[in-house]
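Thread: quick sanity check before group meeting

JM: Hey all, I'm pulling together slides for Thursday and realized we never actually wrote out the predicted structure for the chain we discussed last week. Dropping the sequence here so it's in one place. If anyone has concerns about the input, flag it before I start.
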Amino acid sequence: MRFFITLRMALRALSRNTMRSILTALGIIIGVAAVIVMVSLGNGTKTQVQAAIASLGDNLVLIFPGNQGQGGGVRSGFGGATTLTVADADAIISSFQHGDSDKENTVGAISPYVTGRGQILANGLNWGTQVYGVSPDFPLIRSWRVAEGVFFDDAEVVSTAKVAVVGKTIIDNLFPDSDTASVIGQSIRIFGQGGGGGTPFRIIGVMASKGFSGNQDQDDVIFIPYTSHMKRISRRTSLSQIYVQAKNEDSVAKAKSDISDLLTQRHNGTVDFSVQDQADITAARTASTEAMTYLLGAIAGVSLFVGGIGIMNIMLVSVTERTREIGIRLAVGAHGSDVLMQFLIEAIVLSSLGGLIGVVLGIVGSILLGNYKGWPVEPSTPAMAIAVAFSAAVGVFFGFYPARKAAQLDPIDALRYE
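JM (edit): ok, ran it. Output follows.
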C-alpha cells in the first residue's frame, strides 16, 4: 500500500510539469529510437546477404582468384587477380568427373564463370546488363531451370557459338511487345567492355523468373558460353570464378580440400586462389555488416547515456525546487526511504516511458525507411526489450543520486529553505 501511495505522488509530481517531463525524457526517446532503427537496418542487411548467398544454389563451393590474406580480405581485391584459367577449370573437371572415382562421388557439377557489364542492342532498343559466361552445368548448380527454349550445350561451348539465354527482365526491356516464347530465335547485339563488342547473338532460351534478391534483380542477366564471352566479348584470358557443386552437404568439406590441393599443385605450390563454401562467404559478407550494426548501435547508445545525464540534471533541479515540500513530508512523519522511493520512481517512470515511446518511434522509422528508401529493415524484438530495460536501468542509475540527496535532507533546514 505504501508503495502505491508513493507511486501516485510521483506521477502527480510529474504531471504538474508535463512539458519539462517530456523534454527530460526526450534524450531517452531519441536514443532508444535510434538504437531500434540502426539494429533493424543491420538485421535487414544481414538477412538480405544471407538470402543472396542461399539463392546461389545448394552445396556450393566457389573458387576465387587471389589469395585470402590472414586479415580476412582478398589481397588483390575481388576480381582483381588473374590467377584462375580455363586450364584450371578443365583440370578440376578431369580430376573430379573423369578421374579418381573417390572424387567423382564428391563433386556433381562444375562451371567456369566469367562476368562483365555489357550494353545490349535489339529491336531498336538498348539495355545495360550483366553478361555472364558459363558452362552448361550452370543451371544445375544454381537450381535454375529454363522456362522457354534450351540452354546451350558442350558443343556450343567448344565452338564459341554466338548463342544466349536471357532473363525475363531482358525480354521486358528489349522486346516489350513480345511474349517469352516468341523471342526464341531473335537476335541481340552485345557490346562488351573488354575491347570486343557489337557481336550478334541468337536467343535460344529464357530462364525462369527468380525475382529480386534484396535489391538485385536476378532476372536482369544474359548467359552465354564462357568461351564466347572470353573470345568475343571481354577478350580476357582468365576466369572471374569457378563454380563447383558438391554432391551433398557432407561432401562440401572434402571437395574444398581436394580442390585446394589440386590447384596448389597446379600453381607450383603458390596459393594464389581462395576456395570457399556458402558458410565461408556468408560469414565474410556479414562480418562487416555485424560490425557496422554494433558500431551504429553503440553510437545510438550514447544518446541513452546523454539522456540519463539529462534525467539526473532535471531531478537535481527538482529536488532543489521542492525542498520545502520534502521538508514538510519529513516533518509530518514520512521516512527518508519514502522520499528516496518517490524521486527514484519519478526517474524510472521518465526513462521507461521514454523507452516505450522510443521503441514505437523506432519501429515507425524503420518501416518508413523500408517503404520510402527501399532499405532492408528487420526490427528485432530482443533489441526492443533490451532498449527498454536499459532505459529503465538508466533511470535507476542516474535517478539514485538525486533521490538519495532528497532523502538525506534535514527537515528543519528544508522548512527554512526559500
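AS: nice. The mean pLDDT is 80. DSSP finds 14 helices and twelve strands in the chain.
JM: adding both to the slides.
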